[in-house]
Amino acid sequence: MSGQSITDRITAAQHSVTGSAVSKTVCKATTHEIMGPKKKHLDYLIHCTNEMNVNIPQLADSLFERTTSTSWVVVFKSLIATHHLMVYGNERFVQYLASRNTLFNLSNFLDKSGLQGYDMSTFIRRYSRYLNEKAVSYRQVAFDFTKVKRGVDGVMRTMNTEKLLKTIPIIQSQMDALLDFNVNANELTNGVINAGFMLLFKDSIRLFAAYNEGIINLLEKYFDMKKTQCKEGLDIYKKFLTRMTRISEFLKVAEQVGIDRGDIPDLSQAPSSLLEALEQHLASLEGKKVKDSTAASRASTLSNAVSSLASTGMSFTKVDEREKQAALEEEQARLKALKEQRLKELSKRPSFATTDTSPVSTTGGTISTAPAIDLFSTPSCSNGALKMESDLFDIQQTFNPSVQASSTGLPVATAWAGYSTASQAPPPGALQVDFESVFGAKATGVNNIDSDDILKPTMVGSNQALCSINQLSDKLVGDDLDSSLANLVGNLGIGNGTTKK
């Protein structure tokens, strides 16, 4: 089955609806496509492990959930994504995995959908066992063997005897789980298993380098150990020789599938005379009769063995450094490409118009940004367009009854229309409003207003005649609220100290 399935698309859509970008990316990294997880999805998940606001347990649970699928492709890719995050993600991801009591329960996994499913199920069971062992190892020693500092002052070289004898068996268990993947070149037939094999190959180099340094430290301390420690150390060394043979076979498979020869380290076997010297030393501690050996010959044998193992360690370290350098160069190239793409996008963006040409600042006859006038505030306008110095309801203030037209011809916004244009400027002249006519009743006092009458203000007609404020008219000027309000003030007699009767 190739390509994203309907199930993949539906699951991704569900996560889009719920807003879970992490779960959606996990789904996209573990589709039914028979290929390794896409780099962009893995990179995003790595980024998530470095973000403090990302829930690591939720991320891990999303990966575990995908391993419950019946498809070998989805399950295998889930294991690969998990392994990738353990290697390249933030350490808190592997810390969480190590804190769990159980990880992958795939020891009985079997995809019966076809012959390929049967074949790949075997490797899924082996792969999951290695990842479980990798997490358990971290739990036991609180660090990742593939990431520890190496060299003369490295972690495994500076460890004391007691801790060393407890730590090396943990490396051996993880190394055994890795080598138990046991794949042949003719079984690496698709992109999924190839992606998993590459991660195992890189782990094997780093893991064996730490293993090798632990053995060097053990040999340097061997002839100063107690009898029980020597017995443990001899057993560890014999197992190391066996695993050195197995790792060399594993590396041959890598060479057969096209991994560059320069990326495969050289293994230098320690001289067989070393094993014999170790056995004789233990026998002498146990009181058995052995052939005599001088301290000088023993030191010479040990020196040769350490030199050979150190050469092997250097070879593994160089390969690891080349791989890291290649990854660094690839990342720099990717960042450079992103930068160039960003510059191109910026150069293609259209330049924005300045405020001089902005449509908001134009004086056309269709758009005006003049604010509506608040009926209960003191209206004012610059350039003499409208000047009222007092509140309409403050009888202590004086009022200038004349309302002059603006010399600049700017529009005056009415309270109800909310907008005007330059072409609608009123002709010069005064406004005339009859207070009694506005409210539909003539009375001698303001208390006789008929509240049932309704104001229906509209725009002032361009042809409407405007009369002087001093010439009172009984005719209702209902088409202009501004005029009505001005007339109201005039009728109240504000400013001249008299009241109209």
UniProtKB/TrEMBL annotation:
Residues 321-348 form a coiled coil. InterPro entries: ANTH_dom, ANTH_dom_sf, AP180-like, ENTH, ENTH_VHS. CDD domains: ANTH_N_AP180 (cd16985). Keywords: Coiled coil. Residues 14-145 form the ENTH domain. Signal peptide: none annotated. Pfam families: ANTH. The keyword ATP-binding does not apply. It comes from the Eukaryota. Belongs to the PICALM/SNAP91 family. This is Phosphatidylinositol-binding clathrin assembly protein isoform X16. It comes from Salmo salar (Atlantic salmon). The lineage of its organism: Eukaryota, Metazoa, Chordata, Craniata, Vertebrata. The gene is LOC106581143.
